[in-house]
Amino acid sequence: MRRVLAVVAFVSFLYSCSSNNITEDNSPEKFFTSRQLKGTFGIFDNNKGLFTVYNLPRFRDSTYLPASTFKIVNSLIGIEIGRVKDDSTVIPWDHVVRAIPEWNQDLMMKDAFKYSAVPWFQELARRIGKDTMQYWLDTIGYGREYRKPVITQQNLDTFWLDNSVKMSGDEQMGLVKRLYFDQLPFQKRSQRIVREMMLQENNSNYSLSYKTGWGHNEQRHAIGWIVAWIQENRHPYFFALQAESPDSSYDMSKARLDILKDILNEYGFMKGKK
């Protein structure tokens, strides 16, 4: 079922996009419920200025910890201020053995981003420092629509994981859209490097870029994210997907990408015909 809503009521979406109409589409619901999840999904056709969303109230009004999607911003700040030179910068392993084998080694930034290595980016946050981190989050308005983060020495390396800051799907989409078009207040070089790290699939039909996130809310529900864009025939389409399970042990790593690809396939993507 689809219906068109006036964007006037979608105040926060006006902040991140310029669409005049929103189409509400319930067809993606089956991809969430078949995996015992609830969630939301939004996609914006930048060429036509059309926005399609499943579960509009959740996308617009509900907020969740960003988890590892914050690595987009953490990377931008680190590169911008020179705490890392580029995506080949290595931060040495601290020799604490963790459950994810790929994390237990010296990692270049691009590999830490690919493996979503939490300890690597926690060290980067510590190198950035409390005041500088707060400055940049305030500058880009990260989380400002709902819960502005307050950085302390105690939560400097955990605030994106412990629910100290929360983001809506709308805000996530606004962020990646501005990143794509070099509209964030960082040098173009910094934004280009991060965009390149986000590229996951690239073939003759499409290119798919994204960053995932997986954490737990205050009720210990598993929260999953996947955000960024798909590009076909040089046209970008920005998306944000958020999923939730009351089972704290639910494995979001596969489910979020499977749901994304199910939706994109149903919408006619990944065939080079968009």
Can you describe what's shown?
The chain has a single domain (2-266), classed as DD-peptidase/beta-lactamase superfamily (Beta-lactamase), CATH 3.40.710.10. It contains 10 helices and 10 strands. It has helices at residues 11-16, 29-33, 56-61, 71-80, 109-114, 118-128, 130-140, 169-180, 188-198, 252-266; strands at residues 2-6, 21-25, 38-45, 50-54, 90-91, 107-108, 199-202, 207-216, 222-232, 235-245. The strands form 2 sheets. Strands 1-2-4-3-10-9-8-7 form an 8-stranded mixed sheet. A two-stranded antiparallel ribbon has the order 5-6. A hairpin with a 5-residue loop joins strand 8 and strand 9 (222-232). The chain is globular. The two termini are 22 Å apart.
Q: What attributes characterize this protein structure?
A:
274 residues; alpha+beta; Beta-lactamase; eight-stranded mixed β-sheet; two-stranded antiparallel sheet; 10 strands; globular; disordered N terminus
